[in-house]
């Protein structure tokens, strides 16, 4: 099969890097397909259980150096079949249920550097499609507040879908340009991530057209926007808070040059954090090469673009360094105020706080129905007409100076004859706790359900039933007279076809 890349086009785009990296290796790796990679969503599954699942499916795992939940996946082909005949990882059961998320390894690095903790107030300024927001949420373990922002409506839909599928409860989604946070949310966040829009050169291994639009004009236009967004991120961060700036491009103008120019503007107010000094779960990261590679680029800038300072410990990942996409990251700490805090009124949520007595009634109903507590005592329920969401009190009370697009995780719909019909995403998050009104689904029954059909069930089953398959809660159905009505979401059935 012909390779989709054009070597001459790649050389044309990357020839400018001949003085700062091995050009032959850069082109060679940029024209290789990416290794399959995913991240375990620890809101729904622990890494040990994922390892068991992988072993059962004969997957070979190679850990991502900077993310203990990230793995490169090498899967054997089914006997007698071509590799293309394998079920895509995006259609694997774990992915459909939100237990895993398809994410490129270098894309996991910014959140690892951000190091969000339970209880933090965190802003993901350009959050769609959701890979980094869901990674942040998993590290926060449902505690604290995550503001996931994007400015494009179509991308926000994708972001919300990802947040819901992975079971994120402590989130408010907003639709604002990133610069808005500088004035309206000054010094409000413990940690801010700005994964900035860029020319995307580093993504050419999965998108062979990524180099097409990387003109001098587009580089300059992006660099101007990136400076504005990084400055806004700094303003929005509390003193002592952390900012991570990242891009998936290779151009120095959008990476080192952007950060250095902003550091010069905020000299004495913002400092660079050396990633080698950060405490990490698995000891020292093997990232020295990425820092050395950025030093080379900074020296080049100093010599050729009259940059006055260099040798900051930024991380530059060339595609050949770790056999990943190309990426850039810088970690900053805010040391002093950068902007006066203006009084801005908080906008009230359009969802109503469900009274504690009504919440207690729902808790009791679900406990009686499924034999387990599915709603935590420390969680709050929000209601808008018949729709209900679950979140925490901190997220609800966080003073946000604009309306949110959505908040928390959809829990379900209030009904006349039954207190509530649980939503699929809530069920796949909490349903594994259930001990009663569960139907253990066989392989044959699961195949029938995934074809969109109903299945038989015991005659004594009546009403809403949770479905378990391979030890996981996979959805819900409604039982009556020995038949179970299939309530799996349509997208799930279409994805499996």
Major beta sheet summary: 9 strands, mixed
> Taking all residues together, what is the mean pLDDT?
92
Q: What structural category arises from helix and sheet content? A: alpha+beta
Q: What's the level 1 CATH class of the domain at 106-126 and 178-334?
A: Alpha Beta
What is the third-level CATH name, the topology of the domain at 106-126 and 178-334? Rossmann fold
Q: What radius of gyration results from the CA coordinates?
A: 24 Å
Care to count the β-strands?
Answer: 23
**What is the overall number of helices?**
17
Quick one: CATH superfamily of the domain at 106-126 and 178-334? Answer: Vaccinia Virus protein VP39
Low-confidence stretches: 1-5
Strand content: 15-25%
Molecular shape = globular
* Distance, first to last CA: 26 Å
In the CATH hierarchy, the architecture of the domain at 106-126 and 178-334 is: 3-Layer(aba) Sandwich
Helix content: 25-40%
Walkthrough of the structure:
The protein is an alpha+beta fold. Among the domains are: 33-102, Sun protein, domain 3 (Alpha-Beta Plaits); 106-126 and 178-334, Rossmann fold (3-Layer(aba) Sandwich), CATH 3.40.50; 437-497, Nuclear Transport Factor 2, Chain: A, CATH 3.10.450.720. It has 17 helices and 23 strands. Strands 5, 6, 7, 8, 9, 10, 11, 12 and 16 form a 9-stranded mixed beta sheet that branches. α9 (216-236) links the parallel β8 and β9. The relative contact order is 0.11.
